[in-house]
Amino acid sequence: MVNTKKRKKPHFPAYRISVNRSFTLNLRPLILTVELNNLPYPMNHKSYPFWHPLIPVLILLTTWSAISLRGEDSRPNIIVIICDDLGYGDLGVYGHPYIQTPNLDNMASEGILCTDFYSTAPVCSPSRVGLLTGRSPNRAGVYDWIPPGNAVRPDAREQVHMQASEVTIPKLLKEAGYATAMAGKWHCNSLFNSPEQPQPGDAGFDHWFGTQNNAAPSHANPRNFVRNGEPVGPIEGYSCQIVADEGIHWISEHQKKNPDQPFFFYMAFHEPHEPIASPEEITASYRTVAATEKEAAYFANVENVDRAVGRVLATLKSLAIDENTLVVFTSDNGPETLNRYRTADHSWGRAEPLRGMKLWTTEAGFRVAGILRWPGRIQSGQVERQALSALDFLPTFTKLAGADLPENLQLDGTDLIGIATGKPITRSKPLVWAYYNAINEHRVAMRDGNWKVLARLDLPKLQNLHTGNIQTVMDAQLQTIEVYDLTHDIGEARNLAGDNPRLTKRLSKKLTNNYRELLENSHIWTPQIP
Ligand SMILES: [Ca+2]
């Protein structure tokens, strides 16, 4: 269903009444909730409607003199941490037998571990555009990874970028009063740090520190970072720690200067995408379990990410903003295939138990790690098995921020507010991916409830849709439908399409309807070469 409903919630300031740190009242027009904190009560950290029977008891137990009323924005800070090509099975908490990820394992145990979390595409650029816009990246015209735009191409790929008209998470949160910043891999344009295309600042980030694509020459001592339009030059250290440093510094400075203003930080690590480089000290610890030196370096690369995440989470605690900061951790796509290209020789990412790898439309292409942590609002130790997507971040974050959505904005996800309290989410349309350059033959995929559906298109591999090929794409019909029950077959091993024609027909129709709608609303580029 197209989400055209404008959110009417006005941006009234919230006032917090604190009573001996034992409970707080958040007062907003139309929304009156009581949060119980630090109480020996089994439903600690829950919000209660104003009529909850505990309220009068608690009020009687306090004195007015203990109450301080102060104007304070109680909306959460939000941090998105995204890895590059992290395998679904690469973290300890997702079952890796060797890689040590204690910080991410703890983050999951303190929040929600998502078993069925999806990125918006099986490759870098579209995945990031989908996350930032809350829409299938095809709508923005970003179909495949974006090469540098230094040469005109017949398929117009040199033009591809997230256009200025796209509505993004940072734009919406900034309008709602948030401070916004990003650090790491951008990969949403072909002309990075050029006035010819929108840059991270144009996408809504007040502060940005990034690279067009990978850290170069590798994760070690990168030379290609740009901060707010100014090339930084060589930096000593490893990319994920450098990116974490930028985040820690920016967040710390922001808390000093504007402690009452909530912030959004997008932290996009380059690891563990090639070209991989890892600290010797960590690599050494894996030499006894890794088959090769390069596998040990890959394992160390993921552990280095874990250490960077640990430093960020420790900073939130030291700044005393841990309780009111939502941190999400995920990956842009699945693991790279070892030696798929010449320099992909460290790519020992683990897709198990999923089928495929990065660039596939089977589960390993885009089912990724998904961890959500927000101690003030999310109960610890939850495991979430509903299908969730990075498409859901925009509707979730804008709701938390009370931000207005533009009229007629077509979104492809749903808000995840309910999962904090174990409620089922409502998804008005299935998750659909159309990746025309997939390694496997089924270029279109759908997740609907427990069903995974794959379909072929009678098309050659395409990296872009443009005026020269759009008619051929429009004429291509979905065919050779495959159906899998992911509840019992996470590895997509048993195609049920032939066993259950009625189910297959129903799912095929649903996929066709949603795919056609997406195609009709996908941006089409015009090549400069006729
Ligand atoms: Ca990637």
Structure description:
- It is globular, with a radius of gyration of 23 Å.
- It contains eleven helices and 20 strands.
- The N terminus is likely disordered.
- It folds into three domains: 57 residues, no CATH class; 345 residues, Alkaline Phosphatase, subunit A; 90 residues, Arylsulfatase, C-terminal domain.
- Helix 5 runs parallel beside helix 7.
- The strands form three sheets. Strands 6, 7, 8, 9, 10, 11, 12, 13, 14, 15 and 16 form an eleven-stranded mixed beta sheet that branches. A five-stranded antiparallel beta sheet has the order 4-3-2-1-5, with no helix packed on it.
- Helices cover 23% and strands 20% of the residues.
- A hairpin with a 2-residue loop joins strand 10 and strand 11.
- By secondary structure, it is of the alpha/beta class.
Which spans have pLDDT < 50 for at least 5 consecutive residues? 1-52, 54-71
Please state the structural category: alpha/beta
- The amount of beta strand, in percent, is 15-25%
Rounded mean pLDDT score: 89
What is the total tally of β strands?
Answer: 20
* Span of the ends, CA to CA: 37 Å
Return the CATH architecture of the largest domain.
Answer: 3-Layer(aba) Sandwich
Bound molecules: calcium ion
User: DSSP helix count?
Assistant: 11
Oligomeric state of the chains? single chain
Measured on Cα atoms, how large is the radius of gyration? 23 Å
Which outline best applies? globular
Q: Kindly identify the CATH topology of the largest domain.
A: Alkaline Phosphatase, subunit A
Number of domains: 3
* CATH top level class name of the largest domain: Alpha Beta
Largest sheet: 11 strands, mixed
CATH superfamily of the largest domain: Alkaline Phosphatase, subunit A
Helix content: 10-25%
